[in-house]
Design a protein that fits this description.
mainly alpha; 0% strand
């Protein structure tokens, strides 16, 4: 009886190498944790009440403790009963109505400390960081998908057809890469002139396709002359079917690695745009808008919002970078 063994595919080998890399698995766990928080925040199960003023202005972290000025501010903001007014015939009725409203909707006293402090409006910094991470991560993921989709499409057409089509796309690529990326991003932001998450995604997606284009063009130029593509041509497969039905599955790992790399860059780019005022509009929080607010708070010695936003961003970016490097090594055919 013959024992037929099936050789593992590219993705099975890549996953086997990833599991053997402890740093890669730790980075993957951190990224997965952030994505779970993003899903819970988007569903309204976590940090849905981040805009509630639960503490006094600039309430410090609990491990620092509230100073005398914060306690005095809390005492000043506490509701006090109005003194009786003998000259106002409606004073008793108003006092009774106010007491009834407070009984139906009691207002809890504002806290003088929070686990990681509050901002100038009394919002919980931890909840604000989670909600800001939702915006920043969504921008990074969606913008990276847009950039990789455009780069893959342009690179496939350019590398597969060659000739004047390739020359046209190469000219377009040269124009984009001749301008510094930050200037290109700011130029597109100034042209669109409308703040919002969708605008940021378009800004980053429309300016970040050049890297994936260059790599995918080279892959398509290499694969279009291989036997399986020529066999598909011989049986009458169209050019688009050969490009996206035969070649694309064999070069999809390049697009995946590029997307994981671009997510890191686009998260940082969103922070820069929001910090410069080209990012999210008023009422939408992101890590960039938190850092924008924190620059004024540092003058007053209030450092906790800066520490929370920059710490969360640094942790995610570092984990994503380590995972992207490990994924690139795991998918390298030379390491099979």
């Amino acid at each position: 009886m013959t024992n037929h063994s099936v050789s593992p595919g590219l993705w099975a080998l890549a996953w086997r190498r990833l599991r053997a890399d402890r740093i890669a698995m730790l980075a993957l766990a951190v990224v997965a944790g952030f994505l779970v928080l993003l899903a819970l925040s988007g569903a309204g199960l976590v940090a849905a009440d981040w805009e509630e003023e639960v503490a006094v202005n600039y309430a410090p972290p609990s491990f620092v403790g509230a100073d005398a000025a914060i306690r005095a501010m809390a005492a000043a903001q506490a509701p006090r009963p109005a003194p009786p007014n003998a000259f106002d015939p409606l004073a008793d009725e108003l006092a009774e109505l106010k007491a009834k409203v407070e009984a139906e909707h009691p207002s809890s006293p504002k806290r003088t400390t929070l686990p990681f402090g509050a901002d100038k409006w009394g919002h919980d910094v931890i909840k604000k960081t989670i909600k800001g991470g939702e915006t920043s991560i969504v921008v990074g993921l969606v913008a990276a998908f847009v950039a990789v989709a455009l780069g893959t499409l342009f690179g496939a057409v350019s590398g597969f057809y060659g000739g004047i089509v390739d020359d046209l796309f190469n000219w377009f690529y040269s124009v984009f890469t001749s301008i510094p990326s930050i200037l290109m991003i700011l130029t597109v932001a100034a042209v669109l002139q409308q703040k919002g998450v969708t605008t940021i995604v378009l800004i980053l997606g429309l300016t970040g396709w050049t890297g994936p284009y260059r790599l995918m063009r080279a892959e398509y130029m290499k694969h279009k002359a291989r036997e399986y593509v020529m066999a598909a041509d011989a049986i009458g497969a169209s050019g688009w079917r050969r490009m996206f039905g035969h070649i694309l599955p064999n070069v999809s790992h390049v697009a995946l690695v590029q997307m994981s790399i671009l997510v890191v860059g686009f998260i940082k780019a969103e922070v820069i745009l929001s910090f410069l005022g080209f990012g999210v509009p008023v009422g939408v929080v992101s890590w960039g808008s938190m850092l924008n607010e924190a620059q004024n708070e540092l003058i007053l010695g209030k450092w906790w919002q800066l520490a929370a936003a920059s710490g969360a961003m640094a942790l995610l970016v570092t984990a994503f970078s380590l995972f992207a490097d490990a994924l690139r090594d795991a998918l390298d055919p030379k390491l099979k």
